[in-house]
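Fold this sequence, please.
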Amino acid sequence: NVSVPYYQTKSIKVRDSKFGLALVIETTPYSGNYLLGFQLAPEEKLREVHKEILTLHKSYFANPEFGVQFAIEEQQPDQPATRLESIVDDMEILQSREHTDSYATYLTDAGKHDHEPVYSEELGLAIEKLPQGYTLASLWDILS
């Protein structure tokens, strides 16, 4: 039993395999590029299932459903276009920090393995040497 969305299906064929004829469904690279084989007996049942899946596949692509239902309403000619009023929110800008997103910046250096381990008095264990300008407090600051 398998469930493959039609839009992730690349091809549906009947092919010969080491087990005899098989229904083969190939998925797109986006969905993993799988090659799924199914054996059905007798052969006429295999051909019938293949034809039914192909018909459903073509029917789906002729009128795909993406899970959202909507109806386009025509605007009456005598009604003016609806315009939403622009609202400006009151915002307070907090004190800026030197490294506003230090964690993200730190992670960009994560691929570089030239940070030698050093003993952290604060944590009581060995950690990677932090890049210049970073502190443990600034990395933990993302949680608050």
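The mean pLDDT is 79. The first strand starts at residue 9 and ends at 17.
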